[in-house]
Predict the 3D structure of the following.
Amino acid sequence: MADIEITPDHLIVHIRGADKFLALKSQLEVPLQHIAGVEAAPPEAHGIYHGLRVGSNLPGVVTAGRFLEHGEWAFWDVHDPSRAIAIRLHDEHYAKLVIGVDDPSGTVSAITAAIAHH
């Protein structure tokens, strides 16, 4: 799981606890203008294969780290696919961030509002 922080210009993902070790990352920061879209419960979160990985993938337990699929990098930190959100990016190293959060619909609303306001 992760915490999402929204500043006036950036979205910051803070990776919690042992996931820092599993994902090989403790924080990601993305300019709001590089967010193409966000959705709750993305279909890919329920899949088993996410591409070639640098990190951990124990289906049903945790998916954390960097994954390369179809020539695009994605960052994952998900324990419960029903609590995942997908943040689609452009002009960034990662094409998407798939993150488990406590309140998926509230987080999607907050990110959507921040993008619209920015």
Observations:
- Residues 104-117 form the longest helix (14 residues).
- The chain has a mean pLDDT of 88.
- Strands lie at 2-6, 10-15, 27-31, 35-40, 52-58, 62-69, 72-78, 84-89, 94-100.
